[in-house]
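Q: Structure tokens for this one, please.
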Amino acid sequence: MADAPFLLLSIRGEDEAADDEYRAMMRFTGLDEAGMPRIRLTDRELGDVDLSQWSGIVLGGGPYNVSDDPESKSTTQHRVEAELAALLRDIIAADFPFLGCCYGVGTVGAAVGAVIDRSHSEPVGGVTVDLTREGHRDPLFAGLPDTFDAFGGHKEAASLLPDGVVSLATSADCPVQAFRVGANVYATQFHPELDLDGICTRIDVYKDYGYFAPETAESLKDAARQRKVTHPMEILRRFAQRYSRPL
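A: Here is the predicted structure, written as tokens:
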């Protein structure tokens, strides 16, 4: 009997970044295109998602922020946010396996009443992540080093989590690097799919998106090369292994 696939939801309208993200997600989960189909929400409507047909759902990051001024949001961003909000209501109610990478903090956080704002943005590049006590106990994070390097870069973050939401990881400049809702709904602020090649691609693609001064792109790549990022990808592998189930 075949396993139910995982669904990747992408909010990247830029082909190079979207395709690189997709390849990385498949590589680090160990899945192929059949095992992880992709919907690019910038290109098409989400439509109905029957959770019973999937092992789990992964949401990638991108240039959207839930805390953006509503008047600055495009028609597509408004649609995507509405579709994700409705889907997340079902996912959280069912405690269905979900992993939101970067943008997941904003979307899942907003769904559960976290404070999402610009107080703890981090520049594009390496970040040092510290597991919390609960992180050490969590199935996706247990066994990772107390402190490890990851790649990230974001304008918004969670400043405060509501009661009942479990903080799994933190960093010096961003108090919430990962959290869990219920037993199976996860969000990370760092990007578990990003290796050195991936962060360099993101720097090239998004150098004019306001994350950093465009003229610093090469120095950011040089700084990224000084980091040894190997542990975040384990989270993706564990997510796929833990939640894979027969269709």
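A few notes: The helical segments are 15-29, 75-94, 103-112, 133-137, 196-205, 217-224, 233-243. The longest strand covers residues 122-131.
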